[in-house]
Amino acid sequence: MTTDSSQPLPGAPRPEWTLPEITGIQIRRIPFQARKPRNFESALANVREAVEFLVKTSGPIPIRALGPALFIGEVQVTESEQVGENEYRFLAYNNIDQLKTGAPIRFGWINDPESERRETPYQYQEDRPAK
Prior knowledge:
The protein has about 130 residues and is mostly beta strands. The chain has one domain. It has no helices and eight strands. It has strands at about 20-30, 50-55, 70, 75, 80-85, 85-90, 105-110, 120-125. The strands form two sheets. Strands 1-2-6-5 form a four-stranded antiparallel sheet, with no helix packed on it. A four-stranded antiparallel sheet has the order 4-3-7-8, with no helix packed on it. The radius of gyration is 20 Å and the shape is extended.
């Protein structure tokens, strides 16, 4: 009878999912029109405006199963897209009445517990120019 006495192969290196620093945010209210769905009625059909957060970061946001989120006080903003090199657009549209002036802006992954959210030097204020 033979036995395999070799050591197990090392696992793949763990991916690096550290978020970059936010280096600037521009916040403004914009008109919003949901794209027209073909096969169902959209829950966003009656939404007419959104708050846009144009976020500049110190590096790219890593791609993983759960996307990035901005936390404006208790409001989680998860709708995002990359619009340039290290520039991302986040949209809040169904809960903009809950955004409070002066609320701290934190950065993390969708559904991160509060202890995992990264502090930023920014607070919510509409029509805030980028740094």
